[in-house]
Amino acid sequence: LEKMTDLVAVWEVALSDGVHKIEFEHGTTSGKRVVYVDGKEEIRKEWMFKLVGKETFTVGAAKTKATINIDAVSGFAYEYTLEINGKSLKKYMENRSKTTNTWILSLGGTDYRVVLEKDTMDVWCNGQKLETAGEFVEDGTETHFNVGNYSCCIKAVSSGKRKEGIIHTLIVDDREIPEAVE
């Protein structure tokens, strides 16, 4: 296995189907550019005479668009920034925390990462989109699904406050699971 000697940047990106690791190699003498997503080579370019520019690729099951920008800072120093869906990684993650809820839980010795996409009400678990059944209840809605042999439910209830909106709670075996912060 070739040693990644020109590794200049590593990012962790939390998407609905999991947390993805993006690694970027930039050979400033050879002009080489290599992008790895979760250890798999996505792009390889050798002998690039232009050392600045961008590389665009996709990440995860939903083929989310990602771009690495390569900018010269001074002399032979370079800055590498990652954009997800056209937004800086920081902006993307801030926006994502408003549009998704994430729970990390351990059931029967197995770890699960459950993600609710609030706009579509899609539920993901460990990289797979789950079959769900939604129903209206007295104080809101319930979205039912299974994780392993466990029946789960995400309850959506109005907070009563306009700024807070709807509160989503994951319940597994009558136990409330606290939301994770990624």
UniProtKB/TrEMBL annotation:
<dbReference type="InterPro" id="IPR010695">
    <property type="entry name" value="FAIM1"/>
</dbReference>
<keyword id="KW-0963">Cytoplasm</keyword>
<comment type="function">
    <text>Plays a role as an inducible effector molecule that mediates Fas resistance produced by surface Ig engagement in B cells.</text>
</comment>
<dbReference type="GO" id="GO:0006915">
    <property type="term" value="P:apoptotic process"/>
</dbReference>
<comment type="similarity">
    <text>Belongs to the FAIM1 family.</text>
</comment>
<dbReference type="GO" id="GO:0005737">
    <property type="term" value="C:cytoplasm"/>
</dbReference>
<dbReference type="Pfam" id="PF06905">
    <property type="entry name" value="FAIM1"/>
</dbReference>
<protein>
    <recommendedName>
        <fullName>Fas apoptotic inhibitory molecule 1</fullName>
    </recommendedName>
</protein>
<dbReference type="InterPro" id="IPR038513">
    <property type="entry name" value="FAIM1_dom_sf"/>
</dbReference>
<keyword id="KW-0053">Apoptosis</keyword>
<dbReference type="GO" id="GO:1902042">
    <property type="term" value="P:negative regulation of extrinsic apoptotic signaling pathway via death domain receptors"/>
</dbReference>
